[in-house]
Amino acid sequence: MSDSPLLERIKQDTIAAMKAGERDTVGILRMLQASIKQVEVDTRKELDDAAVVKVLRGYAKKVKDSLASARDAGRDDLVAAAERELALVERYLPAELDDAALEAQVKAVIAETGAASPRDMGKVMKAAMARLQGQADGSRVSAVARRLLGG
Question: Distance between CA atoms of 59 and 56, rounded to whole angstroms?
Fold first, then answer.
């Protein structure tokens, strides 16, 4: 039995998609499971929900990158497929913070760490990413932190 209710949900959704004959959905969900299983094999331990979310975020980032490449190449067929894949992956990810909530969290981290200048960016990013745990993309956190630190 897995330590991750999220992984169990993905497995159950895979079974439901198989029964419904949704081949594309089954393929994507199997790829997600394979990515998670690979990390479990590499680390030699079962993943909890936080670790599964981290794997899913990495998978989503790869899909976003391929989506951008497909758009640049003018491949509408690949764009549509990548958008479907991304939408499915995002169903399993926690909702991202809106801009105001993200800024409030980064301000709190800056206050806690005593950061005062752009030189403290590393310290702020480390604490902010630990605190947010997948609720915001690192590039968004970095942009907010840089703006608040005057960089």
Answer: 5
